[in-house]
C-alpha cells in the first residue's frame, strides 16, 4: 500500500480508495449544487406570475386597505388581472392574513380555507 494513499475498508471488507471517496464527494457536491439550482429555478418559475399582476402598476398601500371602501378599490384592481387565480392560491397556501390577494380580502380567504377544511388560523 502506498504511504500517501488512505484506504478505508468498504462494507464488504474491500478497499475503498481515496480517489473513489473524492469522486463520491465531488459527485455529491455537484448533485447538491444541481438540486439547489433546481429548487431556486422552480421557486422563481412558481412566482413568475407576479410579474404579470395588475397590482404592480398601483401604490402597494392600495392593496392593504384599512376599511371596506378600500377593499372594494383593491378588488377592482384584481377584477381583470390575468394572474388572479395564482395570486389567490399563493395567499391561501401561505396563509397571508393582510391585504387583498387574488381579489379576495382576509375575511374571504378565511371563508375559503374553512370551506376547504384547511382553516389555518
Kindly describe this structure.
This protein has 121 residues and is mostly helical. It has two domains: 33 residues; 64 residues, no CATH class. 50% of the residues lie in helices and 5% in strands. It contains four helices and two strands. It has a two-stranded antiparallel sheet. The longest helix has 29 residues. The chain is elongated, with a radius of gyration of 26 Å. The relative contact order is 0.08. The model has no long low-confidence stretch (mean pLDDT 79).
Note poorly predicted spans. none
Q: Which oligomeric form is depicted? A: single chain
Write the H/E string, N to C.
Answer: EEHHHH
- Which secondary-structure class do the elements indicate? mainly alpha
Look at the structure and give the mean pLDDT: 79
Rg (C-alpha, Å): 26 Å
Number of spatially distinct domains: 2
Cα distance spanning the termini = 65 Å
Helix content: 40-55%
Strand residue content: under 5%
Number of helices: 4
Outline: elongated
Task: Give a count of the beta strands, DSSP E runs of length 2 or more.
Answer: 2
Largest sheet, strands/sense/barrel: 2 strands, antiparallel
**Strand order in the sheet with the most strands:** 1-2
Amino acid at each position: 500500500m502506498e504511504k500517501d494513499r488512505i484506504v478505508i475498508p468498504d462494507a464488504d471488507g474491500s478497499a475503498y480508495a481515496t480517489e473513489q471517496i473524492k469522486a463520491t464527494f465531488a459527485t455529491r457536491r455537484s448533485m447538491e449544487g444541481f438540486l439547489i439550482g433546481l429548487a431556486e429555478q422552480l421557486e422563481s418559475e412558481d412566482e413568475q406570475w407576479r410579474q404579470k399582476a395588475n397590482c404592480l402598476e398601483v401604490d402597494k398601500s392600495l392593496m392593504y386597505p384599512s376599511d371596506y371602501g378600500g377593499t372594494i378599490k383593491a378588488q377592482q384592481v384584481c377584477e381583470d388581472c390575468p394572474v388572479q387565480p395564482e395570486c389567490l392560491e399563493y395567499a391561501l397556501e401561505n396563509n397571508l392574513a393582510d391585504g387583498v390577494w387574488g381579489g379576495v380580502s382576509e375575511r374571504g380567504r378565511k371563508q375559503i380555507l374553512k370551506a376547504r377544511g384547511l382553516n389555518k388560523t
